[in-house]
Amino acid sequence: MRTALVLLPVLLFLSLLLYVGYKASSRLKQSKTFQQEYFLGSRSLNGLVLAMTLVATYGSVSTYVSGPGLAWGYGLGWVVFAAPQIITGFLILGVLGKKMAVLSRLTGSLTVIDLVYARYRSRSLCILLSLVLLIFFSATTVGQFVGGAQIFAAITSLDYKAGLLLFAAVTVLYTAGGFRAVVLTDAVCAVLMLTGMVLLGAVILNEGGGLSAIMTKLSSTSLDASGTSTLLTFNAGGALPLSLLFSAWLLVGFCTIGLPQSMVRCMSYRSTQDLHQAMLVATIICGALMIGLTLLGVFARAIVDELPAGGSDALIPLLIVERMHPLLAGITIIGPLAATMSTVSSLLIAACSAVMRDLYLQATGHPCPDTASQKYSKAMTVLIGCICIILALYPLDIVAWINLFAFGGLESAFLWPLLLGLFLPYMNKEGALCGVILGLGCYTLLGILQINLWGFHNIVWGCLIGLIGSLGGMVLGKAPAKDILNTFFPHKFPAPKET
Fold first, then answer.
1. Which domains, and CATH codes, for the chain?
2. Quick check: helix, strand or coil at residue 45?
3. How far apart are CA 313 and CA 64, in angstroms?
4. Is the pLDDT of residue 404 over 70?
């Protein structure tokens, strides 16, 4: 009976996503420009949907599980570490939004790689970035599937594989409806992520006797030598050094500009007014989710004295199972499932574009025809999704390892080619190639060798070496062609007037 009550809202949620995907797929069939609709939703997103899809894409299963679980152990110090996530939507849209929208329309770019090629005209660079994107996105998708299935199994008591096949198959099916299906379901997921957080927060506050009682309990827990609770200090009593704090502000703050799954959102909205609206809404929603969920992990310390046998990642599932009515538990579990599915759908559509558009273009020298794209894009999305489901059913150690550093790897690869390419006129293909190879190489090598330099996360060194490589290659390489400068920097390099 309990399992049925838990499953009821979940099944309704999955049915809603399939319906949204079906409607978006119907619109896709009516579109005159298939690729523009499939990969960018015909650049027609309004501000609210743009904000919601950006937040939902950024949020993941770890937002609901790992973050609150770590906050249980570190206290408010982990909230400080989560704080830079508040600005991610504002930062990405504010820095890249206007310029990427204008240039993508001007150059006819439908993907981030399209824009990279228009800026540098380097097949080697685009093939390298496409492969990085495809590998890391696929590995991250597997990790999201595994995490979501584990939560599903823990709360519903169903078999792990049955839960995985259920929600993963739904995700793959609606993603095959194209970019519009992805962003519309992302908007639904963002709302349900907030709903899940509010329900879980109400339970924690009720169980803890209110905010005042919770803070009183926390102030007497994990005391240091001076009698101060380490849970209420900004660095968890020294457990979270400033070097790690700086790393966090790079990894989940500034460097999120380099995430291609977020960048592509900057090419998909209707107008400047929508952009400004999205910047405001995304900041509010992202702040509420990232800080709210982390705070709930801290507050949970007042009602859970010891972590469950499954470790910090089992904390939230434990609270949902043991402290909530089955029907409310079913509604609440939609939050982490929505976070998982929204992230996966964005990764899948981008992985499909890497194959069907980016690699095809670089291999053949011309874009994939609309007729061929229409025939194979959905099949490619389903194929990549099925491969990821199989790997999640029988996860390999190397896939799990890749998933751990994929987030930072994407940032170290894409940050400088896009950021410097959009704002530095004399940035050239030699600089971009050097930046990608050295930045990603440094980040990956330090990760493989498990080297930690002075307490900083490897993203710090990956970005630093990538920047040095980019600037060095720019100085030693050739200046960009005049027509590229005319297109990307028309105010500084106006095109010659026709006589």
1. 2-396 (1.20.1730.10)
2. strand
3. 9
4. no
